[in-house]
Write a structure and sequence with these properties.
With 335 residues, this protein is α/β, with parallel strands linked by helices. The protein folds into 2 domains: 7-211, Rossmann fold; 223-334, Homeodomain-like (Arc Repressor Mutant, subunit A). Helices cover 47% and strands 13% of the residues. The protein is built from 15 helices and 13 strands. Strand 12 and strand 13 (166-169) form a beta hairpin. Helix 9 (242-248) packs across helix 10 (253-264). The chain is globular and about 65 Å long.
Length: 335
């Protein structure tokens, strides 16, 4: 019988406003996996350590004290580096944790895989290892990420990315899906299913689109584009076209499109669609309107076009979305 190779997992302990669950979660998963393996007559596979820049304990959320097992310099080789989410001003987060970056690059050069959880992607991207690769992060941080790391291919709707051993996850608790993905890769499907059932985690969730709240990208310095955005958001129920907007602001169509894309990362039409679909989502969540009424209410007259755009943006049909998020629908299903 082939003896499984022990995998060394290093969970980093960054400085700052770290999401404690992103440290606790992988620590629990890989240690619990060892228990599951032992219970099925197999050898434990994972050695899990928390690693800090210094041996002192870190205090997270002004309350929780976490002490690392080791310092970075004590870890000569590891198989997987896990970077938790660190919230706050991301430039300051990176500066506070810059001493992690050369160590991560060195471990990767020695063959280690690297995984970022949620906005831990900002630290991962700061290593340069993501340049030219795909990455995901929390949907609320995508604009900042694109501005800071233009050489990274951000796929903001994905829950998991795997680009040749460089992993990332979408927002918040979706890091569990990445951990399950890694557990299956390192062990087998049966073990991943066992863990997902034990902790009631939905396995094989690939898109975070249903959870995205479109807030409009206004963190830019183009006043004309901002006025165009405000016009769209106020009049989204009406028929709006690019030529109309360009004429309103005495610009050529191509000039407006170029400036709009640069400022918002969306074309004018994409932005209009996102505003309409966000309004439709809210109506589906709280109103008693049927899907057709919602469609007309946000300015669509073609049912197929509405359904196609809605599914493209959210990953669900309007009816599926209503059933999932409308309280009245949930009560009907549970009754």
């Amino acid at each position: 019988m082939k003896i499984p190779v022990m995998k060394h997992i290093t969970i980093l302990m960054p400085r700052g406003a770290v999401a404690l669950s992103c440290i606790e979660g992988p620590f629990i998963l890989f240690n619990k996996a060892n228990e599951f393996l032992a219970n099925t007559g197999r050898q434990p596979m994972f050695s899990v350590q928390l690693a800090g820049l210094t041996p002192e304990a870190q205090v997270y959320d002004n309350f929780f004290t976490v002490k690392p097992h080791v310092t970075l310099e004590q870890v000569k080789h590891t198989n997987l580096v896990i970077i938790p989410a660190v919230n706050g001003n991301f430039a300051e987060v990176i500066e506070a944790n810059k001493d992690f970056l050369p160590w991560i690059r060195h471990q990767h050069a020695q063959g280690a895989e690297v995984a970022s959880l949620c906005v831990g992607a900002f630290l991962l991207a700061s290593t340069g290892l993501l340049n030219g690769r795909k990455c995901s992060t929390h949907w609320s941080a995508v604009n900042t990420f694109r501005e800071m790391f233009p050489n990274v291919e951000l796929v903001s709707d994905r829950v998991i990315t795997d680009d040749q051993g460089i992993y990332s996850s979408g927002g918040a608790s979706s890091f569990w899906n990445l951990l399950l993905y890694l557990l299956e890769k390192y062990t087998d499907r049966e073990m991943a299913i066992m863990f997902s059932k034990y902790y009631a985690i939905e396995i094989d969730r690939y898109s975070q689109s249903p959870f995205i709240i479109f807030q409009g990208q206004k963190d830019h310095n183009d006043p004309v584009v901002r006025k165009a955005q405000e016009f769209i958001e106020t009049n989204y129920q009406e028929k709006i076209n690019v030529e109309q907007l360009a004429s309103m602001f005495a610009l050529g169509r191509r000039n407006l499109e170029r400036r709009f894309k640069k400022a918002t990362s969306n074309s004018v039409i994409e932005y209009l669609q996102r505003v309409k679909i966000e309004a439709a989502k809210k109506r589906l969540e709280v109103s008693h309107e049927n899907v057709t009424e919602v469609m007309y209410g946000v300015g669509y007259s073609d049912a197929k076009a509405f359904r196609d755009v809605f599914k493209k943006v959210t990953g669900m049909t309007p009816l599926e979305y209503r059933r999932k998020y409308n309280a009245a629908e949930a009560e009907t299903i549970s009754a």
